[in-house]
Inverse folding.
């Protein structure tokens, strides 16, 4: 279980994210004939953070086929040019705009070589997340936050679907003993969300003219300790990694009709 401090911090974080998402729940779909474009990048400043690895303590023949004894925790990806992948960027105070058109691949989750793929999910409110496992071992998807499910995947390639009814942040973990497996899902009420690619790039199209707050959100890249968890298959206690808190950065952006705006973020340890 989490320590009381970690539990309180997580609860406060999830409440904050859920409240922010709920505040945008009155979003209206309108015709955007003179919309602008917002694009930019998330770049890392300073020495690249150390890759977080964790011991492979279960199913090494499935989880780490290269013969290594550790696997990546997938918390930070910095590209060759300094771009930061897997950062969620969104418009905070938009109330009307285009219809939902988020990328379909961000609402399909696979469990492959004991990793959740993709690592960051974007699912529209009241839409379904489709899940499967490509691994010949028992996995689970345990969700907490804006959605609460604990789903077993004992067999490969069987698809399970769940509707996400409430906007907000959802943490995904495995209770099947693969304690390093982690991912984050944002359930959202409007389409102006993006996940940065390996170059750190994001883009929003058909944005109604106006001034908005644009937010960059990263799940956090530090490892601060371990906590006791439970392997449902072996019925044994295991040690799960505990990560540092998510980080956010915010800027103002003005969008003019049929024009392009560029907003860049520079993030780092400082």
């Amino acid at each position: 279980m989490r320590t009381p401090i970690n539990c309180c911090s997580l609860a406060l974080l999830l409440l904050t994210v859920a409240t922010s998402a709920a505040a945008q729940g009155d979003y209206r779909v309108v015709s955007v004939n003179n919309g602008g474009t917002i694009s930019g990048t998330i770049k890392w400043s300073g020495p690249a953070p150390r890759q977080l690895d964790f011991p492979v303590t279960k199913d090494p023949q499935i989880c780490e086929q290269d013969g290594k004894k550790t696997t990546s925790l997938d918390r930070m990806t910095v590209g060759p040019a300094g771009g930061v992948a897997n950062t969620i960027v969104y418009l905070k105070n938009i109330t009307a705009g285009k219809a939902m058109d988020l990328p379909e691949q961000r609402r399909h989750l696979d469990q492959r070589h004991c990793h959740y793929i993709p690592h960051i999910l974007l699912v529209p409110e009241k839409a379904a997340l489709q899940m499967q496992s490509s691994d010949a071992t028992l996995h689970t998807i345990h969700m907490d936050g804006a959605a609460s499910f604990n789903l077993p995947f004992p067999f490969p390639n069987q698809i399970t679907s769940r509707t996400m009814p409430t906007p907000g942040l959802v943490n995904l973990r495995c209770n099947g003993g693969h304690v390093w497996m982690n991912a984050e899902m944002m359930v959202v009420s409007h389409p102006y969300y993006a996940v940065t690619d390996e170059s750190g790039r994001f883009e929003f199209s058909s944005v109604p003219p106006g001034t908005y707050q644009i937010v960059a959100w990263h799940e956090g890249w530090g490892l601060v300790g371990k906590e006791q968890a439970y392997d449902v298959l072996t019925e044994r206690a295991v040690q799960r990694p505990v990560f540092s808190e998510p980080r956010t950065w915010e800027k103002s952006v003005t969008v003019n009709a049929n024009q392009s705006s560029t907003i860049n973020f520079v993030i780092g340890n400082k």
In short: The two ends are 30 Å apart (CA to CA).
